[in-house]
């Protein structure tokens, strides 16, 4: 799967920000039609995004569009305008159950069939940001072969469960951890919460590093200044890569000699550590570091 270390949102009605996003070397550009866009600008946002998809070179960035929630009055117009412009993927917000993903999946399949596009060419990413979404994680995670990642939405989740947001984020920790666990169980990427305090870059680095340590593949960002610190946090360092390579090589050598657990630098190494080392190397490869 491709690297999705930073996923940058911008309001879909703001062409200047869309252009700006293409200069940032960000893994994912996510043009929004949902909560970042005023209700009386939804139409402008759809049209601007469709035009941007047709005319702007996004370089290596993945071209994503966040549509409005399934069941909202906007969704049919969102898909009708956006799918023909062929984004790389659709981000579905406020996902409550598998039916909502299946519904979007079927709509996209219709366009793909009608236009002779490769079936499955447009991928899906689901934002889980309600209590019921967390409860339904197993069915959501297995809903569609298009689904590549789950996103954790902390602000909406807190509002839904009646929690008050704190800097440490302990009040959403269960949901954040559940999301990363279910994503791993079903082979999906997990993309961590936004830090809305976009001027506090040191706090962003701390939160991003926490996300890396929890197992997230990336993080949502809302401002250009957040892109580089987040992509850096989610890229394994040279030292980590070299340590991981040492572990994998030593493990293979010991296996060949018929030995499972062994000691390296005073620490026991066995299968789980090797699996982590292999996952780190996989991330380094996706980020183009190997
Ligand atoms: N994507 C691309 N460019 C962006 C950007 C973004 N998300 N946010 C800001 N910029 C650009 C600005 O247009 C400005 O460009 P300029 O110097 O050429 O004029 C530059 O970066 C500096 O912006 P700044 O003045 O620091 O921020 P702002 O006050 O204009 O905007 C926000 C602050 C929060 C409104 C803005 O960052 C934003 O719109 N973020 C995304 C919001 C969103 O999509 N929310 C929904 C998903 S959670
Ligand atoms: Mg939200």
CATH C-level class of the largest domain is Alpha Beta
Report the total helices: 12
Bound molecules: coenzyme A, magnesium ion
Multimerization state: single chain
What percent strand? 15-25%
Tell me the major beta sheet.
Answer: 8 strands, parallel, barrel
N→C terminal distance: 15 Å
Predict the CATH topology of the largest domain: TIM Barrel
Q: How many domains make up the coordinates?
A: 2
Q: Name the CATH superfamily assignment of the largest domain.
A: Phosphoenolpyruvate-binding domains
What is the residue-mean pLDDT, rounded to a whole number?
97
Structural classification: alpha/beta
Q: Any guess at the CATH architecture of the largest domain?
A: Alpha-Beta Barrel
Radius of gyration: 20 Å
Instruction: Please mark out the parts with pLDDT under 50 across 5 or more consecutive residues, or reply none.
Output: none
What is the H/E string?
Answer: EHEHEHEHEHHEHHEHEHHEEH
Strand order in the largest sheet:
1-2-3-4-5-6-7-8
> What is the strand tally?
10
Question: What share of the residues lie within helices?
Answer: 40-55%
**Large-scale geometry:** globular
